[in-house]
Structures are given as structure tokens and as C-alpha cells.
Amino acid sequence: MKFHSRSSVALLMCLAAFASAPAQQPAPAPATPPAAGSQQAPEQQDLQRRIKERMEQVEKFGWTRQGTGKLGDRAEIVIPKDWRFTDGNGTRQLMVLYGNPATDRELGTLAQEGIGDPPWIIFEFDESGYVKDDDKDELNADELLASLQEGQKAGNEYRRKNGMDELELLGWAVPPRYNEKTHNLEWATKIHSIGAPADEISINFNTRLLGRKGVMEVTLVCDPADLEAMIAEQEKILTGFSYIEGERYAEFRSGDKIAEYGLTGLVAGGAAFALAKSGFFTKFAKPLIIGAIAMLAAIKKFFGKLFGARQQD
User: Fold this and answer.
1) What does the longest C-alpha to C-alpha distance in the chain come to?
2) Domains, the chain, ordered by start
3) I need a labelling partner for 224 at 20 to 30 A (CA). Which of 112, 151, 190, 254 fits?
4) Cis peptide bond prior to 224, omega within 30° of 0
5) Cα–Cα–Cα angle for 252, 254, 256, nearest 5°?
């Protein structure tokens, strides 16, 4: 069965710990009570109970519904109307709840009001140092995609050995693009679980907000059908984002730590990281964890070609 609405996607995600296969399209409500011995009514009751319990857990993470959300000691985000914010601690609990290991880089999550269904906007910070944008005109989408797809093969070997579903990186939903005025880098990948219906596609939309000491990683979680509208919505929301004084990209000073990669490295590494956490971002019920280490090893040649000269300096 296929779920097309955001609330249905959330229902699947809420049951990630219980389900073992994609669900089927729910049948219309029966006109008469189920026959004696039918398991339909008890199953539906159990389903509703699990959803309620999961949503009660989510609410306990602590949410702020107005004002400004503090993203650690790095930045802040204005909480939009009809959205709510939880801090890094709540975000870590949210990730673990949906079958993903916490990274300890989580700083906050924006979620639309409701019962916890997407869209969500997740903020994490990578203290990698100041990322130079010298290669802003050298973002080769075709080469990056080919490298990531090669890495996906290594990731699938890991998944097979660990009894996990294999993933297919279909291509870009949005090719890598950089705004040198706002220092925002963004891209989106299309992901498919091999063996699932062909139209079951997950999209990870990624934004990187460059700062003086690292990069704020922003991930939009939404149904693919809502992507275009949500990209526009997120763009408005991020106008309310700002690094605090001393953390802004323009405040770079001689002697600050320089990241070992540029924009190309952000896309390659960031896309691999998003796939590694695809259990959180896909619209399927099962958590889909990929071997990120294996995947990154497979694109080592790509990094070496781009940054080998720098490493020798």
C-alpha cells in the first residue's frame, strides 16, 4: 500500500520500530462491523495505540512555539508561525526514536504543528573550519553523481552482509548550487530502495550555511510530492537564520582554522552522510542504514584527485 499524504508518511515513520515491510493502501472503512474472529478491528486499535504512544513521546522532547530557537552557541532561527522548535537534546532523542544514531552535532529541529508528521528542518553543525568557496565555479554535478553512485555500490555490499535493503541513488532532484551572497550551498538527491515499487522515491534536500568556524548542515525532510513547495517555504524560513556575532562567515580572521575541503567536498561528503541516515529520511517504514564508511572509502579516489595537491603542501 502506498501513502501519499504527509500524515500517512509520518504514520509509517512512527511505526519504523514495528513494521518490517512497506504498507498497503488502507481499505475503506467497512459499512458493517467486522465478522466474528476478524483481526481487522484489533489491529487497527493496536495501530492507533502505537501512534498515540509515539506522538506522546515526541511531545515530551520539549518544544518552543514562538520567538527564537537557539542553535547551540553558534546561531539562532526565528520560529515561524505554525511551526515549533526543539533544541539539540530534543533532536537527538527524535533521531534515536526513529531508528538513527545520534551524532552529537544536532542543534535543533523545526517541525510543523500537528501530530509530528513531516516536513521537518533539522540543524546540525560541523566544526570543520572555514570552508573556502574558491571552487564555486567548479561544481561538476555529473562527476559528483558518478562518484556517489560508485560509492553506493560499496555501501550496498555492507548492507547485504548485514541483512539490510539495498539503496539506489537515482540522481539529483536539485543539482548542487551555491549562492555566494548568502554563502548557502544546496542540493537534493533521489533515493530508491531496491525491490520497492518504482514510484517509491525518497528525496533528501540539503543546505549548507557557511560560517566562520564550520558549516551549519540543514536537512529538509518531506514527502517528494511536497518538495517544490517546501523548498520555497524553507527558503523563507532560513531568512530568519543568523550566526551569532563572531561566528559569521564574513568575520573570518587570519589564523582561523581552514577546512580541508571546499564546496565540492561538502556535497560529496554531505550526500554520503545523508544516505547513511536514510532510515530517518526515507518514506519507508524500515530504518535503512547504509555503510557510510564504506561509501566514503569508495569515493576516496575522487577526493584524492581534487585535494591531493593540497594534502602534499
Assistant:
1) 77
2) 6-23+36-312 (3.40.1000.10)
3) 151
4) no
5) 65
Mean pLDDT over 232-257 rounds to: 96
Identify the CA nearest to 285 among candidates 6, 36, 9, 7.
9
Residues in Cβ contact with 276 at an 8 Å cutoff, skipping those fewer than 6 apart = 289, 290, 291, 292, 295
The per-residue pLDDT for range 181-224, each reduced to its tens digit, is: 889 999 988 888 888 888 788 777 889 999 999 999 998 887 77
Residue among 29, 9, 33, 34 at smallest CA distance from 19: 9
The whole model's pTM is what? 0.68
Cα-trace Rg, the chain: 21
Q: From start to end of the chain, where are the E strands?
A: 68-71, 75-78, 83-87, 106-112, 120-126, 167-179, 184-193, 201-210, 215-221, 241-243
What is the DSSP annotation of 50-104? HHHHHHHHHHTT--B-SSEEEETTTEEEE--TTEEEEEHHHHHHHHHHTT----S
Question: How many residues belong to the chain?
Answer: 313
Q: How far apart are CA 175 and CA 177, in angstroms?
A: 6
pLDDT in tens, 100-118: 667 889 999 999 887 556 7
